[in-house]
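Form P-L/3: holo structure prediction, ligand PMV.
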Amino acid sequence: MDRLGGCRPLKAVAIAPGKVILYGEHFVVYNVPAIVMAIDRVVKVSVSIREDGSLRICSDLGFACEYKNGAAKPLMGGKKSVSFLEPVRIAAKTVLDHFDERKGLNIDVYSTIPSSVGLGSSGAISVATVAAVSKVLGHEIDKEQIWRLSLQAERYVHVTPSGVDPLISVYGGLLVWRIQDGSKPKRINRDIDLVVGNTGIQRSTGKFVSIVSRKKTKKIEGISQLMGVMNWISNLALKAFKEMDLVILGVLMNMNHELLKVIGVSHESLDRLVEAVRKAGALGSKLTGGGGGGCMISLTTLSKRAAVCKAIEENGGQPMVVRKNNAGVRAWLVKS
Ligand code: PMV
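OUTPUT (holo model):
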């Protein structure tokens, strides 16, 4: 018998959104405020209990692994599946250890967030995994706990993460947050549509977080001094959101992109899209997320949206209009 008073529920399902960082990526790792928005692209994770005690993880991207007695056996996608699915394994194990449970699990991951391009797919997967595993085990956990438990998997992906990706996936909406705020981000009650341009170049955020960290330690490219500039940009953006001053928000995005170029995390494919959308009439544009490829965002009025999408396509990118997603992570049981 389970806590519902019937047969053990067969499955728990959790949904968590991806994100775009509007201002402050990389700098947020050093306690500078970031402004970040959950988007209408989500991951869904479904989890059921296995009676044989083993762990099986399967992703709709063509990867699957079985974990038994400490060994990982690829079932689909070859050796790459082991590293690709590792954040999911870590997230599930963190929850099992936290609740001192020894159960086996089947975990299925479905995603509408393109992976490794700066839209927070790994953060969303960790968050949804933590929420679904807790749910299927019958443990109720609050949003703060989901965020804290998902940080373990995030460390595998980003090396020294700020925690902003799982945070926005947990809470949803449009938030301003710095590390010292912990699990208490501030909401910005504004709506904004953005056009994302995906260069299609997949890269590792952890690599770029490490590059910035090395430069900061060696005191090159004035990175420490630039922290103050980014702090100023984020605070001005917050004020511009209050007044809904789209022109200033656009100018601040352009300035933010220049800072990201200076610290060495942009890429020629991103710079090309950033320039092209400005020429097509965007109010502002910048790379979003870890950089080095991946995605850029453009702030655009409705009348210029089609031209901006066309400019992205003509310059080798894939355009995608994204809207704010107010719902953070949600998890529920399925009895079928
Ligand atoms: O996961 P991405 O590529 O969206 O980037 C995360 C944002 C960084 O600031 C680069 C890293 C972090 O943990 O804050």
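COMMENT: Residues 1-6 have pLDDT under 50 and may be disordered.
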